[in-house]
Amino acid sequence: MNTKKMSVLLSSIMICGIVAGCSPKTTEAPKDAPATTAPAQTTSKPKETVKLKFFTGKVETVDLINTMIEKFNSENPGIVVEQEYQKDASNVIKVKFASGDIPDITTVVEQDYIDQGKYLDLSSEAFWSRVLPAIKELSTDVKTGKQFRVATNVTTAGIFYNKKIFNELGLKEALTWNEFKANLQTIKDKKPDVAPIFIAGRESWTLGHFIEFLPHGIIKQTLGVNGSRKAFINNESDKLAFDAENGSIDTFAKRLLELKSAGLMNGDALTATYDNQKEAFATGKAAIISQGMWVLGDLLKINPNIQNDIGFSPYPSIQDGTKPVVLSADDSRYAITSQSKHPAEAKKFLEFLIKPENLKTYSEFLKSPPAFTDVSADWGPLKDQVSQALKTGVNIPFTDTPSGFSGDDAGRMVQDVLAGKYTKTIDFAKAYQTAWDKAWKATHK
Questions:
Q1: pLDDT of residue 46
Q2: Which of 11, 192, 292, 336 lies in the 20 to 30 Å Cα band around 430?
């Protein structure tokens, strides 16, 4: 082979080698070689933890719910529930809805927000077959007939009194205002170191309850449960008559000032706290308080020996021609917000809370009967007295208030009454009407 041909051949070999080196290899494996599988390429990101925001204004159950949340979180990897408690929850939730910091599940349920579609419709959930019919009725929106909330318990509120003091002084449960005031006067005269009735005026919600149970109680017994709910929700002012002279609100303010002027309440009624109230009653330094079953657990913690000395009766009628009342309502309400990014996980947490074993624990802690028929709980020592009170007094629900006028807002107005802001009680009644109307109109533009 001549030199020229040799050069061409070598060049061709080099080019082929270069091309082969740059091309993918397709050489077959030997027939007897073991089969191999290429490792799968992992491109999906790990699943993020879902954080559920639980917003509540129920102070009595914060610690218990935290314990239950720990259990739920441990049983449900990938979901973390975080509880937020706010003292003035009804007003705080307004800010949350407005700012976009929206909880997934909450105990704060307002009619205005139901009207605005802020809550998820729970009507088709399976758990309703387990709920007491009366509680399901109270959980039903009067406008749409749907259920946007569920209550886990039944609660009652009325007059807690010290039976030992009553027996010692020969007093009986009071059903009229004159009887009630006479009892307080006897306690003041015979036991000067005991507050006849102890008011926790620094906690505005406790005074808001006075409004719900006493003057609103007149409206509720006059119009009935559904009739009064519609009147409150639709602001039927001719039926509510908040600003009427000698009406329910005016009469309530007069009765409250009667107690103050006669020295029948604790001298620090404006500054005393809920804790002060519980301590005073549990230790025998107060003969009467206005509260609900939610207080019972704390009273027994402070003084377990008081268990057999606690009496319970309806609120006396404050206006001639009306009857005594006792709160009988849905308690511990839960709703899932319609803007929740995690409705499935929120339902899972709600289902956890209403499991029979968890509701039993909750009911016995709160000393409140369960609203679910498959839960048997030893909820407290006042069963018989509560049953009797429910037979004696007209049973009333909580008030459906406008979202801009919470029980705390009403309570702050009652603080003004005790502080002497109003020279005439009718001025308070008119101010109450104005505040209610303003809040209602703000959400019904």
A1: 62
A2: 292
